[in-house]
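Readers of this paper often ask what the protein records in our data store actually look like. The remainder of this section carries one protein's record, kept here as part of the documentation.

:::
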Amino acid sequence: MARGKYHLQEQEIPEGFQIFEDRLEVAGVSFRKSDATAFAASESVWLELEREVDNKHDKNAIRIIGCSKGFFGTRRYFIGYVPRAVSRKVVERGFWGKVKPRLLKTYIGDSGYVEILFQILGPKGQKYQFDPPKSGEGGHYTEYGERVKQLKAENRLDEAIDLLLKLVDQTEKEAKNHGKGMGVAPWYYEQLAVIYRKQKRYGDEVQILERYENQPKAPGVSPHKLAERLVKARQLRDKQRA
């Protein structure tokens, strides 16, 4: 009889962490079916990561170890690998030792098929470094709010501007794809406006607020608030030019 189980309720996301990669499949399970099946059939299970530095085919290889607790201590099963593209990001972007695996699902089919799904968790606010967004690509813009706040707190304003402009592109593209009734997210425009004013770049502030003014908007106080800010920004720009 097939057996499947979700494990997220057993393993809460630790404080200070967020999801970097969701719903990944353990690679190479079919080559380790005996251990993978034993692990998936066990109770009180979790995952650990190990570097495989002597791997001749992939210098970034990361083993996934399935662990289970029993009467005689912890059992450890070598069940497969982190997918190659993800392990490369972990290692080459300096996140080895900073990320954690989180078991999502185990499944054993009637025919002996085994599937093990997991997440990669990383330090909160650092998903930007792990998976830098590009216009229309990368992670969803809502995942980068903490990173924007961090860059502002560290006074790395040029980096914050660069990131926010990419996120503005994303929210506009999403609003366009969803059609009528979907407005852009105003927070990203507002953060750019705040930074530009701090730098006395009033022309740029006017430009980003006018850009927002021309976008579809969801109901709320933000459109009125940013419209008032635009009036003030125009005054500051004109005074600076005089």
Summary: The first strand starts at residue 3 and ends at 6. The mean pLDDT is 91. The chain has two domains: 3-123, 132-241. Residues 157-178 form the longest helix (22 residues).
